[in-house]
Amino acid sequence: VLEAPDVYVFGELMEMPNITNLKNNPQHAPYFELLQLFAYGVYGDYVKEASKFPQLTPTMLTKLRHLTIVSMATGQKSIPLVTLGNQLGLTSTRELEDLIIEAMYTDIIHGKLDQKNGILELDHAIGRDVKPEDLP
């Protein structure tokens, strides 16, 4: 599911008994943690604690970066490309622009890439999963 195209919401999956049981098995607990990362986390969380997660495939890494863009878009209408690149661990402007364009084509964000001013202007982003403890 972490590599499946068009799957960016994991809340329902996190509630399934067979998935919640993964956290109790030492062999499978890292995969449960990885699913939680994709449901609630961002790329920076992965970088900070990479050793506790299984190795990410290039497809998973791209999806996690897409989800990070969505998280950053919450409450912001424009994000400087420099800030975005830093949060995504990308130093190449071309890689960053390609990632943003891909996110737009997958329909998880809508907006404009203003290369002249170095800003991503956002009109819309999909919603992210909310941790159960964050609900009132």
What is the ordering of alpha helices and beta strands?
HHHHHEHHEE
Task: Tell me the major beta sheet.
Answer: 3 strands, antiparallel
Judged by helices, strands and strand pairing, the structural class is alpha+beta
- In percent, how helical is the residue content? 40-55%
Radius of gyration: 15 Å
Low-confidence stretches: none
The tally of strands reads: 3
What's the number of helices?
Answer: 7
Strand order across the largest sheet = 1-3-2
| Backbone shape | globular
On the 0 to 100 scale, the average pLDDT is 93
The first-to-last residue Cα distance is: 29 Å
Strand % is 5-15%
Sum this structure up briefly.
By secondary structure, this protein is α+β, with helices and mostly antiparallel strands. The chain has helices spanning 11-14, 17-20, 29-40, 43-48, 58-73, 81-88, 93-105, and strands at 78-80, 109-114, 119-125.
Please describe the topology of this protein.
Elements: H1 11-14, H2 17-20, H3 29-40, H4 43-48, H5 58-73, E1 78-80, H6 81-88, H7 93-105, E2 109-114, E3 119-125
Antiparallel strand pairs: 1-3, 2-3
InterPro entries: COPS7/eIF3m, PCI_dom, WH_DNA-bd_sf
Family: Belongs to the CSN7/EIF3M family. CSN7 subfamily.
Protein name: PCI domain-containing protein
